[in-house]
Amino acid sequence: MIYLSGITRLFQMGDQEVRALSGINLKIASGEYVSIMGPSGSGKSTLLNIIGLLDRPDLGRYELDGIDVTSLSEIEQACVRRKKIGFVFQSFHLVPRLTAAENIELPLILNGISPTNRKSIVEEALLKFDLSNRAQHRPAEMSGGQRQRTAIARATILRPTAILADEPTGNIDHRNGTEVMALLERLHHTGTTLIVVTHDRELGARADRHIAMRDGEIVMDDISERPNEIE
Amino acid sequence: MRLSDTLYLSIKTVSSYRTRSLLIVLAMALGVAAVVILTALGDGARRYVTNKFSSIGTNLIIVIPGRAETAGGFPGAVLGQTPRDLTLEDANALAHLPQVRRYAPLNIGVAELVAASRLREVTVLGSTAELLPVRHMELAQGRFLTRGTGHGAQILLGAKLAREFFPQGNVIGQRVRLGDRRFLVSGVLKFQGESMGFNTDEIVIIPIDYAQALFNTSSLFRILVEARSRNDIVFTKEAIFDILKQRHDGEEDITVITQDAVLATFDRILRALTLGVAGIAAISLAVAGILVMNVMLVAVSQRTSEIGLLKAIGAPSADIHHLFLVEALLLSLTGGVLGFILGQFGSLLIRLAFPLLPAWPPTWASLAGVTIAFVTGLLASLLPAERAARLNPVQALSAK
Exposure winner among B64, B73, B358, B376, fewest CB in 10 A? Predict the structure, then answer.
């Protein structure tokens, strides 16, 4: 469960103070599929960064699975991020000098899992995401779809409770985009919370719940139409 | 993150950026190699000089006529300030000292040596049979001066002179003329090269009384005394002063130099020189350290997005810090070890090229070289590692 209350994020741009988020109140239940849409500068990525504990709000309270994560230390936040959140980025963010298998292995390394256990977990993930024949290939040797599948495999290797996807199909063609979304939705169907930030209306429409943002505020949240689902 | 994994990821990174890594390793290696080779040269020179002195005998005490107010060098005797000469009687008086194992009075001069239709000027040493053990000389053939006063006009030839005058090798028993006197060759010295300012291969040695007659003098150039042990040197020196002061009517008109003191002075000077060159070489290590820092700072800039990614997937700042630290340490240590090997190899080449110079790198220098490389790498990586660890993940992820 993600619970945001009065989340405000301010940025200093020269002399001016910019409100990237202004008193956001949001509840996302475990296992929900949510899309966040809005024009550039509306604050959707900032919101995603705060939900993913990459950024701290200036005001407000954020509870993740009942724990106030805003007051956690940097190390504790990193630990929560590692275990509960999986990021999928528009530009994949794969380490160029590592192979697909090694990129997928990274979260396991950070989590202190032994090399023997890592090997079997990575092999399983490669199989699951249809990357077995690309295991020893570097990102530069893979297609956009394969790179994003590698990134999704890396994001989900530790079975996070939430996947945060920022324009996950932004850098790939339509066919691969559809494939990637199908993959993310399959993960959602296993009970993982899926939050997708996108400009793409078609992509946003695939979600069960649609949030629209403008000027750092939520201007539309169709949860009101289905209040019982959240409760 | 486990230490082994930090090491694994760092090795991966280091091996991925081959050119960059190679350059850092090379810079470090050259710095360490310079320390090792230069200290090997300095220490080799020190050992060469001290060995030369030691080969003459570390229990050696040299008595010189004339008084020097300050220590060192050739005192008044050379400048003609001697109030009273040293004589053979003075030398013989030293024989009664219990601390004296043996002594050799010494006269020196230049005379014309003629033999086998050949002629040249040679340095002539006049002494006794004791000169051989006191100066640790060795004979190639024949025998040294006979003990006692009943010896004849015998002469020892330096190895080079023997070869020049008698190339056939039949030297012993040959007659030669030195100045206006005739001598019978009794022995030939071994090749020894330069020692105490003489090329012993080009000298001749004759009995002291013959030398004094040849040079028309009753005074001695100096007296070489060998103490019974190294510990006796100070007492022997005092005893020599006492006995000669007594013989010279209470006048303290001699100078006593101990081989030990000369040796220690040379040792100190050359050790300081070695440290000096090691220090200069160590500067190159500092330069290499700055290179490491520069390259690591560039690496942080180049890998900003990767650092953001690592943070996004749950790496705490400490892990990022350790990754960059270990990476720089790996490079420095590899450079250090390679430099050590290069240094050893370089020293070996010097020893092969100059067999007389014992250019063995001192252990302390090798250890210090590698340690300085490691510490320099550590210090140089602190700032880049800290910068990487402090990166804001959101900004880092948006970096191109």
Answer: B73
Q: Where in chain B are the domains? A: 3-53+265-398, 84-252
| CATH number of the domain within which A163 lies | 3.40.50.300
Name the residue type at position B224: L
Which DSSP string do the residues of B107-144 spell out, in sequence order? EEEEEEEEETTEEEEEEEEEE-TTHHHHTT--EEEE--
3-state SS, residue B168: coil
Each residue's pLDDT, cut to its tens digit, for chain B (400 residues) gives: 888 999 999 999 999 889 889 988 998 899 899 989 999 998 898 888 877 777 666 688 889 888 765 544 545 445 555 567 889 899 999 988 888 999 999 999 999 999 888 899 999 999 999 988 888 888 888 988 887 655 678 999 999 999 999 988 888 988 999 988 899 999 999 987 776 566 888 999 999 989 999 999 988 999 999 988 877 888 888 899 888 888 888 888 888 888 777 777 888 888 888 888 888 877 888 888 888 888 888 888 888 999 999 999 999 999 999 999 999 899 999 999 999 999 999 999 999 999 888 999 989 888 888 888 888 888 888 988 998 999 989 989 887 6
Residue A118 belongs to some domain of the structure: yes
Structural domain including A207 reads 32-42+77-230
Q: Give the closest of A55, A93, A98 to B12, CB-based.
A: A98
How does strand B254-258 pair with strand A33-37? unpaired
Q: What is the 3-state secondary structure (H, E, C) of chain A?
A: CEEEEEEEEEEEECCEEEEEEEEEEEEECCCCEEEEECCCCCCHHHHHHHHCCCCCCCEEEEEECCEEHHHCCHHHHHHHHHHHEEEECCCCCCCCCCCHHHHHHHHHHHCCCCHHHHHHHHHHHHHHCCCHHHCCCCHHHCCHHHHHHHHHHHHHCCCCCEEEEECCCCCCCHHHHHHHHHHHHHHHHCCCEEEEEECCHHHHHCCCEEEEEECCEEEEEHHHHCHHHHC
Contacting residues for B213 by C-beta, under 8 A, at least 6 apart: B181
How many distinct structural domains can be found in chain A? 1
The ipTM is 0.90
> Which of A12, A56, A109, A119 to probe the B interface (max B CBs under 10 A)?
A109
Q: Tokens in use for A23?
A: 């008193």
Closest Cβ–Cβ partner in B2, B305, B315 for A93: B305
